[in-house]
Amino acid sequence: MSPRSIPPVPRIPRSALVRFAVFAALLLIGFAALRWTPLAELFTKEALIATLSELRKLWWAPMILIGLYLVASPLGLPISPLVFAGGLVFGVRWGWLYNLVGAMGGATASYLLARALGRDLVVHLAGESLLKRVEGILERHGFWNLVRVRFIPLPFALVNFGAALAGYPLPQFLTASVLGLAPSLLIYTYFGHALFTVATAADRQTVVRNLFVAMFLVLLLTFLVPLRQAWKRRRYVKKISD
Predict the structure, then answer these.
(1) Which label site among 59, 69, 144, 228 has the fewest CB atoms less than 10 Å from its CB?
(2) Full residue range of the structural domain in which residue 90 is found
């Protein structure tokens, strides 16, 4: 192949690089703050529970919890301390509701941040044609995969950022997220509340065992729909071939 037939490497716009650099800087700031600043002590389950317990009687106390989700999620901070604190301070029912609202708000903020700051660079590196094919695959097969991922203890921000950069449409992302987060957060809120309120070590072992059983059953339910669809497709193909 002659040098003239080699297609030129597309030049990445400086604006895309700058936005991605800002995105990476925000994540580094969040990581550094959680590791080397007093925020590491303030963001523990015990500290959050103590703070929210003092403010529990105030009508705007749930807004603090939801606001922490909106700040922590885009910075890549873990949300498990918030889930446990919400369940213990506000109870299972209201704690689950506040955790769900906060988690969905944090997931949306994380998604939009990654989409705005990192998507252009991904488009220029991968190419629009490849990304369109990937987005088509995600629209057809990615919905239930994202629902199932919400039950797996992966970093919350990683799932949100990955979905945005991979090209999940926002409506699909929000619908799959709420379907996955609603039951999983109920489980974590309940068992987080139970672990902090049980009296003996034997009771805690029972709670942990029940947690794994509940997670297994929920994961099984999420796999039933795609497995049934795959079975119907195979049956349809076999019927046509016969």
Answers:
(1) 59
(2) 13-241
For residue 233, CA distances in Å to 9, 62, 226 come to: 41, 46, 10
Domain annotation covers residue 75: yes
C-beta neighbour count of 215 within 10 angstroms: 18
d(CA 103, CA 118): 21
Q: What is the largest CA-CA distance in the chain?
A: 77
User: For residue 187, which amino acid is it?
Assistant: I
What is the tens place of the pLDDT at every residue in 3-42? 555 555 567 778 888 998 998 998 898 888 877 888 778 7
Here the tokens at position 142 are 């990615």
In this predicted model, what pLDDT tens digit does every residue of 66-124 receive, in sequence order? 999 999 999 988 898 899 889 888 988 999 999 999 999 999 999 999 999 988 887 77
User: CA geometry: angle at 196 spanning 190 and 107, to 5°?
Assistant: 50
In a domain, 169, yes or no: yes
Q: What is the dihedral of CA 199, 202, 206, 212, to 10 degrees?
A: 110
Rounded distance between C-alpha atoms, residue 126 and residue 187, angstroms: 38
In this structure, is residue 146 part of a structural domain? yes
Tokens representing 146 are 């994202």
Q: For 224-237, what is the mean pLDDT?
A: 65
What tokens appear for 155 in the block?
């970093």
Distance CA 191, CA 194 (A): 5
In a domain? residue 3: no
The total number of structural domains that make up the chain: 1
Whether 126 contacts 165, CB under 8 Å:
no
As given in the structure block, the two tokens for residue 75 are 């910075």
Type of residue found at 203:
D
